[in-house]
What we know:
By secondary structure, the protein is α+β, with helices and mostly antiparallel strands. The protein is built from 14 helices and seven strands.
Amino acid sequence: MLGKKIIRWYSQAKRDLPWRRTGDPYLIWLSEVILQQTRVSQGLPYYERFVSEFPTVTDLAAAEEVRVLRLWQGLGYYSRARNMHAAAGMVMREFGGAFPRTYRDLIGLKGVGPYTAAAIASISSGERVPVVDGNVYRVLSRMFEIDLPINASGAYTRFSEVAAELMGELSPGEFNQAMMELGATVCHPKNPDCGHCPVAEECGAFKNKSQAKYPVKDKKVKTRERFIHYLVFRAGNKLWVRQRGVQDIWAGLYDFYPVEKENAEFLVDDEIENLFSEKLPKIVAIRESREFLHVLSHQRIRARFWEIELEKPVFITNEGDFMEVAGLDKLPKPKLVVNYLSAYFPDE
Ligand code: SF4
């Protein structure tokens, strides 16, 4: 039986990872949230830091959001961290601090989708729900040569059914983890290692040499190009920073005064004039940075930073204030801002 073969392979080949040594749904959830869109090698130190800083959901719920975002810095997709913090609060209010273990309760938590709920429920309580993540889509679509695009509507349901059939009466937690591990370590997106695959004999794509065709994806999603010009006001060793508001990919993070444009062209003097109208502050110098690029799944953000040296701090807007450069290290910031500061203010 195919599912049994995969579990047998998993019991010998699985990587020894800290979240695999626990049945605690809180710790499994932490690992799942951190590992979404993140490689294990990158996510592992973050997982260890979060566990040591917030060993229980009570500790996480009690933390300031800014502390959670700062620990998250570098992982990107900050909505995951904000949702995680909000979900910890929900666990305290709605479940008295006992982290839920059933799919039904888990799916109600902020930021928890069908995939994460299925992973936590099956691993922590053995609930019979199949997990379908990017790895599982790839393995199943290749094994059974499924032509349905994985981003088509109905794909999740269809692949869940295939996975459930393959799981049969096997242990749900073991089976789900085995499928994800097979996709992550053997059935790679490029150059799958079919020579070491436990199901090569039964795999349709291997038999027909069609591995590169699967999984099928609809290419409808367009990438949007954004141009952000940051005005970095500096007075002595202080920079003007502000915390971004809600409804934003970087909500809660700190950055400078942003001006978004349709293209890379930018006249910094005009922007300064617009911002201050007649009461222009005394400007000592203006320095333009190189371009910084940040690529997200549907956006390419090109940013340039204009350091505007002032004689003394002035009122910019009431959204932010001047802070010592050295103090910025403690604040959560978008990757672009971190990269700019380490390139242009390396010693502070
Ligand atoms: Fe993937 Fe190759 Fe295994 Fe098929 S045989 S599941 S393509 S690794």
